[in-house]
Amino acid sequence: MRVMKALLVLMLAVWASTAGAAEKEMKVGFIYVSPVGDAGYSYSHDVGRQAVEKMEGVATSYVEAVPEGPDSERVMQNMARKDFDIIFATSFGYMDSMVKVAKQFPKIAFLHCSGFKMAENMGNYFGRMYQPRYLSGMVAGAMTKSGTIGYVAAFPIPEVIRGINAFTLGVRSVNPKATVRVVWTKTWYDPATEKEAGKSLLDVGADVIAQHQDSPGPQEAAQEKGVYSIGYNSDMAAFAPKAHLTAPVWNWGVYYVKVVEAVKKGTWKPEAAWPGMAEGVVDLAPFGPMVPKELQDKVNAEKAKIIAGQQKIFVGPIKDQSGAVKVADGVVMTDPELLGITWFVEGVVGTTK
Amino acid sequence: MFPMRIAKRQEPLGFGGSCFVLLTALGLSLLLSAILLSLGGTSPVRGISVLLQGAFGSRWALEDSVLKAIPIFLCSLGVAVAFRLKIWNIGAEGQFALGAIGATWIALSFPGWPKYLLLPAMIGMAMTCGGLWGLIPALLRQHLKTNEIIVTLMMNYIAILFLDYLVYGVWKDPTSFGFPMTPMFSEQAIVGKIGGTSINWGLAHCVILGLLIWLFFRFTRIGFEIKASGDNVRAALYAGLPYDRLVILVMVMSGALAGWAGFLEASATVNRLQPSIMVGYGYTAIVVAWLARLHPLSIGIAAILLAGLRVGVESLQLDLQVPAAFGGIIEGLILLTVLAGGLFTHYRIAWGVGK
Asked: What is the pLDDT of residue A21?
């Protein structure tokens, strides 16, 4: 009998402890396409996750290097079954999987980065990276001597094409004769291939290397040859201190903290969010010491204009590679046009295939 | 000197002994994994239990592992056929890609066909494309004396780039905002799920094909000829076996099976063709074939084991924040210990200095 009593007490204690745990903290999950050690895209998202982790009553976790497609669907289901409250999927290829899983778990908030689909409990988000890209283009255009700037790019999709265009518009705003040569690597994260691509651009006379990749491979190529580079995703100065002029960077923490707070309060609604420099989600990394003071001031003045909403960047007249006017004088490209852009502006050397 | 040497067994190790060696090897690889986990600051007991639970610990986990094992199994069944003849087909990845391309071609060309016509046509085209992709290195080997390891490996890259070319170009979905993917397949082109599970009917394909391959090697003359030639090429040639034709046959069969896997992955799991369909099943298949010593039933078990490992590692990441690369490390450790353990099938350790 005493044993039974003890057992009962024990059971109650276990039950009480689990009941106490029922008022648990909010769980937020992140899914990354590459390892967080990539120093690039996933790393920048993970820095954002760490900002969420610091919030009161919130726990976070992540799964890295998840292939797009069926694997991502399984990871999302796994998170949902483990009672995560918010799931952020940070690559385009997760979109269809997320739509499917969001339907199965209507109480969970799903957020997909860089796509265009939405659902009752699923929103999408991205940042106006083209804004700091334009500014970094100004820096590259002013620093090049040969007039040829190399651009190592991942895949010919609108996000990347938009970035190349904004960059080129920035280059040409200070150096109307300069050209931007594009090489496609067809990979997001392959440091060796991306470094080789950087080298191939150096061989054709480029003396500034910009990039849209998840690794600092192109930066290393520039550093070895003793020329300048423009990074991406995060401040890559540490990888190539002598070469790194600046970089358009992500600052996801601002956005993630805002979303998690909204979900906590119950005020979150699915939306297609596209915040920019004004909201602080994207920014320009600190300038390297080789960037002259006047140039820094000029770029910072332009930055202030972007934040104030006076500089929209994709404003006509804009010509395509053949010289034909694509956007008429004074016309501002709309968001849907920017999101689906598949042609290069004048000044880009390369094809969108 | 260390009083230990390796001696040949009079007879190969029996069934019980083999099981013991295999389990010891698996246990050893888990032990090494646990040591690595604790070096990384994770509780090894918790880590291994999360890994196993994530892989096989619930109905969901089991379904996920089986689902992922389906393409691995078919690719592995294919390479095992070639390995039996000691033809080293490293090209399952490319043959898988060609199978997916062939199936997609039919699915996009005749979306309105009824299911009972469309699915067999897709399978037929997938097998043809995969088989032809396997035929090329076989012909090159015979007529130009090329090495099939190099050629099949290189052809993987050609196949993947061809797939990229298609989904970035002619087959790109006009409504996908420029992203590389074909339109969704029509309902008739999709292999459905079994009852209320998340497993598709591809599992039944695996069982039937696995059985057929087993029967082929057990009971047919050609199957016997392949095994005999694989064991000793010179003896086979001396006996007048048609070695060259057997090489062609195994490479085509191998490619056709990998192609079938490509069909299933495109039709049942992804429902379209996109570059991320290529996640390295063709290479995992080689590991699986070796672990299973080329036997169909063992391939099934090994495929589920390695698929489970990949699924389980996701839980390990989610619950304990172990890096993704850890999955690859365990996979390597398992292969290493099991292959090393294979030594004991034909050899034993003898203590003391022999004569």
From this structure: 47
| CA–CA distance, B329 with A32 (Å, rounded to integer) | 20
pLDDT of residue A3: 55
Tokens 């008429």 appear where?
A: A328
pTM, to two decimals: 0.85
Q: Is A63 in contact with B314 (Cβ distance < 8 A)?
A: yes
A62, A79, A92 member nearest B179 (Cβ): A92
CA of B199 vs chain A CAs: smallest distance (Å): 12
The residues, ordered by sequence, that sit 6+ positions from A20 with a Cβ below 8 Å of its Cβ are none
With a cut of 50, which residues of chain B have pLDDT below it?
355
Q: Which residues of B touch A61 (CB under 8 A)?
A: 317-319, 321
pLDDT score of A20? 46
Q: How confident is the model at residue B247, as a pLDDT?
A: 96
Report the pLDDT value the prediction gives residue A116, as an integer from 0 to 100: 84
Whether the CB of A193 is below 8 Å from some CB of chain B: the reply is no
Sign for the pseudo-dihedral over CA of B220, B148, B298, B55? negative
Asked if A251 contacts A226 with a C-beta cutoff of 8 angstroms, the reply is no
Superfamily of domain A25-125+252-273: Response regulator (3.40.50.2300)
In the numeric block, which tokens belong to residue A11?
Answer: 């059971």
- C-alpha–C-alpha distance, residues A197 and A187, integer Å: 11
pLDDT at A9: 59
* In chain A, where the domains are located: 25-125+252-273, 130-247+285-349
In chain B, which among 61-100 make CB contacts under 8 A with chain A? 64, 67-68
Is A64–B177 a contact, with Cβ atoms under 8 angstroms apart?
no
pLDDT in tens, B305-351: 999 998 999 999 999 989 888 888 988 898 899 888 888 877 888 87
pLDDT over 60 (residue A13): no
In this structure, CATH architecture of domain A130-247+285-349: 3-Layer(aba) Sandwich (3.40)
Q: Across chain A, what does the average pLDDT equal?
A: 91
